[in-house]
Protein: RuvB-like helicase
Amino acid sequence: MVQISEVKDVQSRESRTAAHTHIKGLGLDEHGIAKRVEGGFVGQADAREACGIIVDLIKSKKMSGKAILLAGAPGTGKTALALAISQELGPKVPFCPIVGSELFSAEIKKTSVLMENFRRAIGLRIKETKEVYEGEVIELTPEEAENPLGGYGKTISHVIVGLKTAKGTKNLRLDPSIYESIQKERISVGDVIYIEANTGAVKRVGRSDAYATEFDLEAEEYVPLPKGEVHKKKEIVQDVTLHDLDVANARPQGGQDVLSMMGQLLKPRKTEITDKLRSEVNKVVSKYIDQGVAELVPGVLFIDEVNMLDIECFTYLNRALESSIAPIVVLASNRGMTSIRGTDDETKAPHGCPRDLIDRLLIVKTLPYNQEEIKTIINKRASLEGLSVTQEALDSLSVHGINVSLRYALQLLAPAGILSKTAGRTEVTNEDVQECEVLFLDSRRSIKILEESKGYL
Ligand SMILES: Nc1ncnc2c1ncn2[C@@H]1O[C@H](COP(=O)(O)OP(=O)(O)O)[C@@H](O)[C@H]1O
Ligand SMILES: [Mg+2]
Structure:
């Protein structure tokens, strides 16, 4: 049986899309009604309200076995909505975004990649009450003794650690192996630490805030002096994903103690995660859940461009949705009737998804924006990028937004800003926009040029 130990917080994945940094949430009021401009979102009220209901369903755990499809033209905010859903759910709920085509790699089976991402989207909150010694370190003295094996030098026979809390102090006499952990965690006098009584694992909580004014430039976390006795029961909460557990248990391990486990996490090595390992991890996890030690936190798996999946992946998806520990799956597609990848017949299916999957989907439609909405979105992006744009330039950008796409209009913003800066102006003017329009083709003009040039570039 695998042993599940503490795992360090691993950032499941950084949110990659800087294009959406202005999106801060769905921007709904307490009745679930979309405010016109809120949370970085502009317009698209129906889709936002629908997503608000979905967030409520997820929170009340009534979404299992179902998935959501965001359908709409490119640039209508599907990815932004998925991101907003995850923001509404909060940072403790895992969110794993992938693009349909990511599944196809030469090295790993596509269903295995899909499985991995499913497990990235399933969180586990482990709560344990442990017997600990906690306090601010006031003394840290290793005591040496003659080497019992003879030979030269001295060995550390034990270490004296003095811990202080608001209630009192206690001196502990600890095993030398714990001294090694203390050194690895770089603990010094003035730190707040706890030592697990059973395992001897040492954890540094932060620096005692009594030392807070020592230096100004420090990336330190200051924590208050712990209350209560030094020796007590403490509830320790950790959020991990099933994938974290798979990875932590797949690596060849130096030792069974927590620290060597942590050390493994710091030097990542690719090891195959087998189905056998996953089911072993599942067994331990469900035991933890039965015992009330852990709680399952289903997160969100977002699959963009779902029409890129093939029939094999869809079959897998259908089955995975039925599992009792499925995350919430959000799909996005900008296709109408398309043939499904991997099928021989040319029958078209809506959004390139098989019928049996479509049946389980809650479909949310995103609509194109009007000029006024596009203008507001561009304005928001401009202020985020630190650009001021004249009214005239805004108008012509929003015309591009209508005629070409919102994305094209947003993309012109940054180069236009550079042009105006080079010209020594503080504002982006209409001339800058027009110049950019000449310099950078949109997709339609580019296609037209390609067609006219008959195969030559
Ligand atoms: N309603 C909206 N309010 C604010 N910004 C939006 C809105 N809709 C889309 N955007 C922004 O427009 C750009 C394109 O949207 P995106 O979500 O990528 O479209 P899609 O995924 O539907 O192709 C992104 O930068 C996104 O943040
Ligand atoms: Mg998108």
About this structure: The first helix runs from residue 45 to 59. The first strand starts at residue 37 and ends at 38. The chain is about 35% helix and 25% strand.
